Amino acid sequence: MSYDNNNIFAKILRGEIPCNKAYEDDFALAFHDITPSAPVHVLVIPKGEYTSFDDFTASAPATTIHGFFAAVQKVAQKTGVDKTGYRIISNHGADASQSVPHFHVHVLGGKPMGHLLA
Ligand code: DGP
User: Fold this and answer.
1) Catalytic-role residue among 92, 104, 106, 115
2) Beta carbon of 35 within 6 Å of any ligand 1 atom
3) What is the pLDDT of residue 4?
4) Could you read off the pLDDT of 86-95 as tens digits, one per residue?
5) What is the pTM of this model?
6) Ligand 1 atom index nearest CA of 91
7) What string of DSSP letters covers 95-114?
8) What pLDDT does 1 receive?
9) N or C: more exposed end of the chain, with fewer CB within 10 A?
10) Annotated domain spans of the chain
11) Does 104 qualify as catalytic in the annotation?
């Protein structure tokens, strides 16, 4: 899949659409999901053009991958869910119902969430 510059997260990265920012550094921007599935539901996106987890891990340089996942952990710290527990999810492709074609990790927490997909 080629990268679509008009996807909603590309517009958020360019500042064309507002977001409720939770964290930002050189590698990632994190913002609260517009339709939260848990008391804490933050989306973490890389600043580069990657369509999904599959594309990111196959194509991005190691320093970029490391910086991005370090940012995911910082989001957990900043939102406090590192203390109580959290789940990270990344949907790739149709069977996972990925709806925005810019790689993102969901950080979910703030309540007991049960076991995986139960
Ligand atoms: P996924 O299904 O994994 O592709 O998740 C996409 C998520 O993005 C979904 O939980 C809703 C969220 N989302 C979609 N549009 C916007 C937006 O404009 N702003 C914010 N903050 N979240 C959005």
Assistant:
1) 104
2) yes
3) 97
4) 999 999 999 9
5) 0.97
6) 3
7) GGT--SSS--EEEEESS---
8) 77
9) C
10) 8-94
11) yes
Q: Residue 118: pLDDT above 90?
A: no
User: Where would I find the beta strands (DSSP E) of the chain?
Assistant: 21-24, 28-32, 40-46, 86-89, 105-109
For residue 115, give the amino acid letter.
H
From 35, 88, 95, 105, the mutation candidate for ligand 1 (largest count of ligand atoms within 8 A of CB) is 35
Q: Which of 7, 8, 52, 87 to mutate to test the pocket of ligand 1 (most atoms within 8 A of CB)?
A: 8
Q: Is the pLDDT of residue 39 over 90?
A: yes
* Banded pLDDT at 45 (limits 50, 70, 90): very high
CA atoms of 112 and 38, how far apart (whole Å) = 9
Does the beta carbon of 9 sit less than 6 angstroms from any atom of ligand 1?
A: no
